[in-house]
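Dear support,

I submitted the protein below through the web form. The confirmation email said the job was done, but the results page showed an empty box. After a refresh the structure appeared. I'm attaching both so you can tell me whether what I see now is the final result or a partial one.
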Amino acid sequence: MNTAILSDSLLILVLGWGGIFVVMIIIYLVSMALMKLFPADKDN
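What the results page shows now:
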């Protein structure tokens, strides 16, 4: 087993999962900002 290939694949794995979580956090923050900027009507 080649440890260089294993370490490279683990780096790609960490970068991939990190990117997924960064995108999820950005989407969450944008949705919170939009809810603050455009609140729902209270007279329903």
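Response: this is the final, complete result; the empty box was a page-load delay. The chain has a mean pLDDT of 93.
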